[in-house]
Every structure is written in C-alpha cells, then in structure tokens.
C-alpha cells in the first residue's frame, strides 16, 4: 500500500468481498475463510486473492501477500489476532479491534446501531485498564477519565507496506505523562489528544463504512493527514512539522 497511489476504482469482485467481510465479521466476531467467501459469492481462489490485493491497495484490509493463501490479518475495525482493544456487545466478547483509532469508530457500524459497544483496552505505557463505552459514535463513558488517543508514527511513514505498523502506533494512554513514558519505551515521538477529538479524526470512516457500497479506495496523503491532525487540535511539532 504505497503512498500517493493514483486514483483507481474497485472491481465488482472487490466491492462484493468488502461488503461480505464486514457483514460476516459483524455477525460472527471473526473473519471469513476462502470457503466462506466462495460459498457466499461464488468467487474462485484467484479472484478472491486478486480482490484482497485490491482492497489492501485501497486501504481497506491488511493481507499477507507473501503467503500462498493471502491471509486476512485485518479488516478495520477488526483484527484477526489479539490487539490492544477488545469489543464487547451485550456483555459478551465480540472481537478484537485493530487499533485505538478504529475503536473510536466501531460503534457506528450498521449492525451495531442501537447497541452499547464496550471497549476494554489498556494504557500503552503501564497496561492499566481502560474501559470505554460508545453508542452510535457517541462517547457515553470512559474509565478512568482523561484518557488520550496517542499516535507515535508520523504519517510520512504510514502505509509503507500496509496498515499494520500504522495501526500499531495508535494507542490509548492515561495522560500526557504516560504518553511521554511510552515514547521513551519505544524510541518514538508522537502526538496525542482527548478521545473526543480523536473521534473527529475518524468520523469520515465511521460514517461511510458499510453505508456506501461504492465507498472509493482510500489514499495516503501525508501532508493532508498532518493538516487533519492540526484541525483537531494536535501539536504536530514532535514530527518536525
């Protein structure tokens, strides 16, 4: 998923696969395998793999293109493997969420409308528990108070290969001191803001995902992303901006 990819359109195979992945994951709490996709959409192995590669290029999924099965690792907001955020619905574990950013948007997905989404997370610095409750993109509560959204990778390095390392750099921390401690632990520099501001950063994705079948491929434009951080009140000087 290189930066500055020229605009392109998803094929119908890719659009159908994207919709199916989200519906399947919302319903079951885990992603589909090739048999599930084949039986639902009638696509053969090669068409499934080519559609996955398109979706990765368009910043929709993360797949391992070096594996023979083009393994599905993430379909944000969901993660196939344990992550820093667990989603609970009706007090039952539903799925792992890909990162703190996606955690702030997941409650607006159509299958979750009208339901409280409890997010069990932790401070990236000290691993202290953090519990967030959202409903239809509205923050209902956060315990403890004052939790920050923290991003420790400059957008100039987002998407060098795929979304994996970008998502890994997006976490929750208890406060600014814990953000600084985490940066020392990881040898990084970052920006942070309150959860309410972070939700504004992800609002577009939260409002279009699963609502617009023809949602176009995403783009990775570092200057525009940095300006977006500024617009929600983040001090981006740590990134040399």
CATH class: Alpha Beta
Instruction: Give the CA-based shape.
Output: globular
Give the total of domains. Answer: 1
**The biggest beta sheet, please?**
8 strands, antiparallel
Across the major sheet, the strand order is: 1-2-3-5-4-6-7-8
What name is given to the CATH topology? Beta-Lactamase
Q: What is the residue-averaged pLDDT?
A: 96
Strand content: 15-25%
Helix proportion range: 25-40%
Oligomeric description of these chains: single chain
Structure class: alpha+beta
Total count of strands: 11
Number of helices: 9
CATH architecture grouping = 2-Layer Sandwich
Radius of gyration: 17 Å
How far apart the termini lie comes to 24 Å
Low-pLDDT stretches are none
What is the helix/strand order? HHHEEEEEHEEEEHEHEHHH
Chart the SSEs and their pairings.
Layout: H1 12-28, H2 34-41, H3 45-57, E1 62-64, E2 71-75, E3 78-79, E4 85-89, E5 92-97, H4 100-103, E6 117-122, E7 129-135, E8 138-143, E9 148-151, H5 164-168, E10 170-173, H6 176-186, E11 191-194, H7 195-201, H8 203-208, H9 222-231
Antiparallel strand pairs: 1-2, 2-3, 3-5, 4-5, 4-6, 6-7, 7-8, 9-10, 9-11
GO molecular function: alkylmercury lyase activity
Pfam family, one: MerB
InterPro entries: MerB, MerB_lyase_sf
Describe the structure.
The structure is a single chain. By secondary structure, the chain is α+β, with helices and mostly antiparallel strands. It has a single domain (1-241), classed as Beta-Lactamase (2-Layer Sandwich), CATH 3.30.450. 34% of the residues lie in helices and 22% in strands. The chain has 9 helices and 11 strands. The strands form 2 sheets. An 8-stranded antiparallel β-sheet has the order 1-2-3-5-4-6-7-8. The longest helix is centred in the first third of the chain and has 17 residues, at 12-28. The chain starts with 11 loop residues before the first helix and ends in a 10-residue tail after the last helix. Pfam families: MerB. GO terms for molecular function: alkylmercury lyase activity.
């Amino acid at each position: 998923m290189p930066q500055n990819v020229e605009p392109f359109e998803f094929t119908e195979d890719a659009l159908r696969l994207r919709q199916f992945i989200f519906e399947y994951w919302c319903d079951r709490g885990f992603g589909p395998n090739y048999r599930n996709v084949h039986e639902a959409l009638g696509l053969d192995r090669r068409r499934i793999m080519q559609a996955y590669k398109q979706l990765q290029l368009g910043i929709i999924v993360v797949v391992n293109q070096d594996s023979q099965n083009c393994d599905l690792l993430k379909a944000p907001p969901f993660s196939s493997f344990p992550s820093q955020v667990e989603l609970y619905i009706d007090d039952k574990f539903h799925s792992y969420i890909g990162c703190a950013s996606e955690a702030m948007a997941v409650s607006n997905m159509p299958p979750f409308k009208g339901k409280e989404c409890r997010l069990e997370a932790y401070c990236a610095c000290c691993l202290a528990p953090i519990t967030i409750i959202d409903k239809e993109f509205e923050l209902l509560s956060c315990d403890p108070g004052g939790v920050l959204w923290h991003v420790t990778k400059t957008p100039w390095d987002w998407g060098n290969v795929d979304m994996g390392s970008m998502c890994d750099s997006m976490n929750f921390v208890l406060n600014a001191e814990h953000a600084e401690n985490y940066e020392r632990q990881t040898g990084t520099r970052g920006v942070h803001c309150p959860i309410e501001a972070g939700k504004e950063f992800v609002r577009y994705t939260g409002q279009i995902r699963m609502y617009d079948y023809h949602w176009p491929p995403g783009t990775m434009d570092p200057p525009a992303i940095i300006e977006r951080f500024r617009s929600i009140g983040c001090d981006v000087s740590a990134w040399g901006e």
